[in-house]
């Protein structure tokens, strides 16, 4: 049984990337509906106010530590997560394995054309993949069409890139009704797969500054970045509380 740690009331699995990928492949073999979530500092702070989101995160079958802040907080609180498990890295590894093992994917999300372009770029590298796509701007009739298409076709991994918390709430509402083994909220991963945006250089990722690189690409994220000092403040409070209990 996997160990779960508690970061401000959000439960996260104590897994590294390899363990997370292996668990997702177990889900595919079992063919039950399994929700995978990727909490980072921003999501955890949002969950403090959004109780529905917190409930969804805590009921997911796999919760991976996507964010340097989560890993650093775990060390401060003596949980000692091994590493950040970035959602986009998980997606890219699943695509590589899917190319070898015949997994089928559905890309749902992004602006019109982005998911399709992501599919085309991915298939240049992994031509054996089976991928269907749809953009994330859904009205009632388009949502019904998407649900029917997913339900009528074998889909092993449903990737939903609608942003937090919409993607988690959409998956929570629909996943059990679909014949899909794994659903994952992937944020802006389709933009990266479509090469609309780029990842930070490896050095910036290693020294936990990928958020700064993303901010330079997306200045509109500045308001959302206010969650980072809030997260740090809450973690320090939690650390002090734990120390006081030991006295």
Question: In summary, what is this structure?
Answer:
With 247 residues, this protein is of the alpha/beta class. Helices cover 52% and strands 15% of the residues.
Features:
single chain, about 250 residues, alpha/beta, about 50% helix
Query: Judging from the principal axes of the Cα atoms, what is the shape?
Result: globular
Profile the largest sheet.
Answer: 6 strands, parallel
Number of helices: 12
How many strand units? 8
Strands of the widest sheet, in order across it, are 4-3-8-7-5-6
**Poorly predicted ranges:** none
- Beta content: 15-25%
Structural class: alpha/beta
Task: State the helical fraction.
Answer: 40-55%
Q: Summarize model confidence as the mean pLDDT.
A: 91
Order of helices and strands: EEHEHHEHHEHEHEHEHHHH
C-alpha Rg (nearest Å): 18 Å
Distance between the termini: 32 Å
């Amino acid at each position: 049984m996997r160990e779960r740690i508690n970061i401000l009331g959000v439960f996260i699995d104590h897994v590294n990337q390899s363990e997370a990928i292996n668990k997702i492949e177990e889900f595919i073999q079992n063919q039950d509906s399994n929700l995978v979530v990727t909490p980072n500092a921003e999501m955890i702070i949002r969950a403090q106010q959004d109780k529905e989101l917190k409930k969804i995160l805590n009921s997911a079958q796999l919760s991976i530590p996507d964010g340097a802040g989560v890993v650093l907080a775990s060390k401060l609180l003596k949980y000692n997560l091994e590493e950040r498990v970035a959602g986009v890295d998980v997606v890219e590894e699943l695509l590589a394995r899917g190319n070898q093992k015949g997994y089928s994917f559905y890309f749902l999300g992004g602006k019109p054309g982005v998911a399709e372009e992501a599919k085309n770029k991915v298939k240049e590298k992994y031509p054996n993949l089976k991928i269907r796509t749809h953009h994330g701007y859904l009205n009632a009739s388009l949502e019904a069409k998407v649900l029917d298409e997913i339900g009528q076709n074998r889909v092993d991994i449903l990737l939903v890139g609608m942003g937090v918390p919409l993607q988690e709430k959409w998956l929570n509402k629909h996943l059990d009704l679909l014949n899909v083994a794994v659903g994952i909220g992937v944020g802006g991963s389709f933009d990266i797969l479509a090469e609309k945006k780029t990842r930070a250089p490896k050095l910036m990722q290693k020294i936990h500054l990928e958020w700064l690189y993303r901010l330079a690409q997306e200045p509109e994220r500045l308001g959302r970045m206010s969650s980072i000092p809030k997260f740090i403040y809450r973690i320090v409070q939690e650390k002090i509380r734990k120390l006081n209990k030991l006295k």
